[in-house]
Amino acid sequence: MAAHTHTRQNLAELTARLRQRDRRITGPRQLILDVLRREEHPLTAKEIHEQLDCDLATVYRSLRLLEEMAMVKRFDFGDGTARFELLGQNDDGHHHHLVCRECSTVVEIGECFRGNLESRIAQEHGFASVSHRLEFFGICPECQAN
Amino acid sequence: MAAHTHTRQNLAELTARLRQRDRRITGPRQLILDVLRREEHPLTAKEIHEQLDCDLATVYRSLRLLEEMAMVKRFDFGDGTARFELLGQNDDGHHHHLVCRECSTVVEIGECFRGNLESRIAQEHGFASVSHRLEFFGICPECQAN
DNA sequence: TGTCTACCTGCAAATGATTTGCAATAAGGG
DNA sequence: CCCTTATTGCAAATCATTTGCAGGTAGACA
Ligand SMILES: [Mn+2]
Ligand SMILES: [Mn+2]
Ligand SMILES: [Zn+2]
Ligand SMILES: [Zn+2]
User: Fold this and answer.
1) Distance, in angstroms, between A5 CA and closest chain B CA?
2) A12, A14, A16, A18 alpha-carbon torsion, rounded to 10°
3) What's the confidence (pLDDT) of residue A14?
């Protein structure tokens, strides 16, 4: 699927979801999705902002909105800075990362033990709608060499 | 084991570890350990500070030092505020939590699938010393009722 | 196309957690 | 008890993120 197809898809979805909430299709919102579409790893608001030409506050506001609309997913690597990834349609984006403690290289980890563990924990403690947040940290091959 | 025994143990360990680094045994440092010893769930720097009578900056500096000396462990519930738990000797404190998304009730989760998953991830991606951070979120029984 | 209005944006100031510079103070070895 | 060096209190600085406000714009409708 070509890039422009992705773009069209993003735009169509964005349009649809924004309409449902009486929100508007603005330049910044489209551009943020475009920036995220090009990346394979999560980006910080600042990194996104550097590739755009609008106010940082707008980036934060847009990301929050896009997150509420389930078009981007927020990740937390524990360094006090949120990171965002684009979500495909019908994808809740749940997955994990392996982050190098030295150079911050990110590896995407697809697999997840999810279902069973979550439901077991829910049952054992009487909690409902249990979710989890899991990230791995280590030293990447390159940093081991140096 | 009575409370004063715990206290004595903490103090002995604190003394030993501080000496090795040419650091001093001060009131705030002892008191922070005392506060943490009374709690079963992690506390924020602010919560600790409220139970003491020293500057907040001192609490932050002390917690950082105690963390470096492996006497307390830092946890991240993803709300932008670090939390700390006391570590026993020869305990790396690795465990997880189940946090209510509504009232923030914390349940300690002892079990961990650790070893196998971490080493498998390490091997598959060539990373070394892989660790992980995992927290669960859900709605506690009480909040489900309300 | 022009109008209208709710939604958006830029900008600057506010927040909240955590850190840091600095001068005053205290720990503890000798 | 003294001296050196670590530690503390206080205020100011950082950093990521949010918010108030006044001017700008998307888009429904005439
Ligand atoms: Mn990812
Ligand atoms: Mn715990
Ligand atoms: Zn690396
Ligand atoms: Zn609850």
Assistant:
1) 32
2) -150
3) 76
Domain assignment of residue B91, yes or no: no
Assess if residue A14 is contained within a domain: yes
Domain co-membership, A9 together with A61: yes
Over residues B68-88, the pLDDT tens digits come to 999 999 999 999 999 999 998
* pLDDT higher than threshold 70 for residue A3: no
Q: Find the domain containing A118 and state its range.
A: 96-145
With a CB-CB cutoff of 8 Å, which residues 50-89 of chain B face chain A?
A: 76, 78, 80
Query: Is residue B65 assigned to a domain?
Result: yes
> Which of A118, A120, A125 is the best mutation test for B, with the most CBs of B within 10 A?
A125
Task: Say whether both A62 and A122 belong to one domain.
Answer: no
Please tell me which residue of chain B has the smallest CA distance to A108: B125
Give which of B83, B95, B108, B127 to mutate to test A binding, by max A Cβ within 10 Å.
B127
- Report if residue A125 sits inside a domain: yes
Burial class (CB in 10 A: 0-12, 13-18, 19+), B60: middle
Give the one of A109, A139, A140 whose C-beta lies nearest to B121's C-beta. A109
Contacts 24+ apart (CB under 8 A), B62-65: B62/B28, B62/B29, B62/B32, B63/B32, B65/B23, B65/B29
**Do residue A76 and residue A130 come from a single domain?**
no
Instruction: Indicate whether A17 and A53 sit together in one domain.
Output: yes
User: Which residues are within 8 A (CB) of B117 and not within 5 positions of it... i.e. 6 or more apart?
Assistant: A113, B132
